[in-house]
Write a structure and sequence with these properties.
- The chain contains 10 helices and 26 strands.
- It is an alpha+beta fold and 511 residues long.
- The termini are far apart.
């Protein structure tokens, strides 16, 4: 029986290009190959073999790896994966083929995928596949590499069940029953009071578990993603039924928030309140929720998801500012118009809008002074503590920091014969982000410049955090990039440099 050797190959994208090796061997014409090699008995899976090979051959880490092609040759079966480069450090090369000069050279080259078929690729079928799928492969990787919130924000729908009565604090057991503080909603139909809840009002929260994000922290219950074909009200009704076993009606949007996690993804949050609730809330999804509890609107538990806390506070302010006698909705008013500083035209517009809604001038002034229905959260530059906390909240097993050190307006990099790279290091257990950065270079004040996610050679989910800082001297081994050039940086690191150079960091100043 003929044995078959198993190997893995990487179609490694760096921006719009593919990273290839140009092989130079004594007595042979130059040829081109993709990174990769044989699967070893110690490899846990073909993907693990791929990540080991990329580390050995390029000192590279990547994002998700997609199996896109299987190449069958006599005596060999090769699984081909597509992935995007995150970092590249040729000083970490450790494969035997790079330690024996008589084997020849592996020159790192970047090539447009549609041009790969014109090269003497080995095997040629792989080159043809890369060029034939020059547009398809990046699209597949975009879907896998970037969380949905990167470019198409997730819409989260949060329904606040608010009780204005004098409930006492209480926690629910974890066996699927509802809150046991004696103030839970009854089995009969309950109409939550149309009046604005007082500061004594309470909101129902659930403590997350088994979700992979913010487990152990408190979140609004019910909450969920808007699904195709649903209105936000449909989502609120569905989530209330699925998560709490109650029926809700007369749901009203009270606040909209555009939020971004520190170093992570953006999303749109829609916050509603229900005026009519039927049934008693129970923990209907105990695999996702450890317990339910009522908490005062103005005294939430310390471990509340920051985004949820900001949303609840916005809703509390909005409800407290809404006079009970006013209609639930009014015509939209210009954001610049307020009761204290509106000019004559604004005042006339306010009066007209109020008159159309049947509200007198005093009521119109109250409406104009209400908190805005739209807010931004998480769009200021996050500090290192926020970034580290969010990485833990999101379940990352490893955090890497890289430094955009500037000296006399030049970015300092580590350089070798074929590539440039930003200095980077993995944050050690028990070490803070600032301490890890200090191991790279003496830095003072730093500014967050961006983040991306990767999978380490050991298969750990990691997040890389980039920081910009001005240096007073050139650290040993670093050299400046040429003015106006990104040198030979990997695409992702070039994005960090461009963002920092243009001032487009994570704040909104100057926009």
């Amino acid at each position: 029986m003929t044995s078959v050797r198993h190997s893995v190959r990487a179609i490694l994208f760096d921006g719009d290009d593919v990273v290839l090796f140009r092989r130079l061997r004594p007595g042979r014409e130059p040829y081109w190959i993709t990174p990769g090699g044989g699967v070893e008995p110690t490899d846990a899976s073909p993907e693990a073999a791929l990540r080991r090979e990329l580390d050995e051959e390029l000192g590279a880490t990547t994002g998700p790896a997609l199996h896109v092609f299987t190449l069958v040759e006599p005596g060999r079966l090769s699984m081909v994966f597509a992935c995007r480069l995150v970092s590249l450090d040729l000083s970490r090369r450790s494969g035997p083929e790079f330690l024996e000069p008589d084997i020849g050279l592996h020159q790192v080259r970047r090539v447009r995928p549609e041009e790969v078929r014109t090269l003497p690729m080995v095997p040629p079928e792989l080159g043809e596949f890369i060029s034939a799928n020059a547009a398809t492969l990046p699209a597949l990787l975009d879907a896998a590499t970037y969380a949905p919130g990167r470019y198409r924000p997730v819409v989260d729908v949060h329904l606040l069940l608010i009780d204005g009565g004098g409930l006492t604090d209480g926690r629910a057991p974890t066996d699927g029953r509802g809150p046991t503080d004696g103030g839970a909603l009854t089995d009969s139909k309950v109409l939550t009071e149309s009046r604005v809840p007082t500061d004594g009002g309470k909101v129902l929260l659930g403590r997350r578990r088994g979700t992979g994000y913010a487990d152990g922290e408190w979140q609004i219950m019910p909450s969920g993603h808007l699904e195709e074909g649903e209105s936000v009200v449909d989502t609120a009704v569905r989530e209330a039924r699925e998560e709490l076993g109650v029926e809700v009606d007369d749901c009203e949007v009270v606040h909209v928030m555009h939020h971004r996690n520190a170093g992570g993804t953006a999303r749109i949050g829609i916050f509603l309140v229900a005026r009519s609730i039927t049934g008693t809330p129970v923990n209907a999804e105990p695999h996702k929720c450890a317990e339910l509890a009522w908490f005062p609107l103005d005294r939430l538990p310390e471990r509340t998801v920051p985004y949820a806390r900001a949303g609840i506070e916005a809703v509390r302010r909005a409800l407290a500012a809404t006079p009970p006698a006013l209609p639930a909705t009014l015509p939209a008013l210009p954001a610049a118009a307020d009761a204290a500083g509106a000019d004559a035209a604004d005042a006339e517009l306010l009066a007209g809008a109020a008159g159309a809604a049947g509200v007198d001038a005093a009521g119109a002034a109250l409406v104009a002074s209400r908190p805005p229905i739209l807010s931004l959260h998480g769009w200021d530059v996050p500090d290192s503590a926020d970034l580290a906390a969010e990485a833990v909240r999101a379940g990352f097993e490893e955090v890497t920091v890289c430094l955009l050190g500037r000296l006399d307006d030049a970015v300092l990099v580590l350089s070798d014969d074929e590539t440039d790279r930003l200095p980077a290091t993995v944050v050690r257990p028990g070490e803070g982000v600032a301490a890890a950065l200090a191991r790279l270079a003496p830095v003072g004040e730093v500014t967050f410049a961006g983040a991306d996610d990767y999978v380490s050679p050991r298969g750990l989910a990691g997040r890389r955090l980039a920081f910009s800082a001005r240096l007073t001297e050139t650290p040993e081994g670093m050299v400046p990039l040429p003015a106006g050039s990104l040198g030979r940086l990997p695409y992702g690191e070039g994005v960090f440099v461009r963002r920092a150079s243009s001032g487009l960091l994570y704040d909104l100043s100057g926009r």
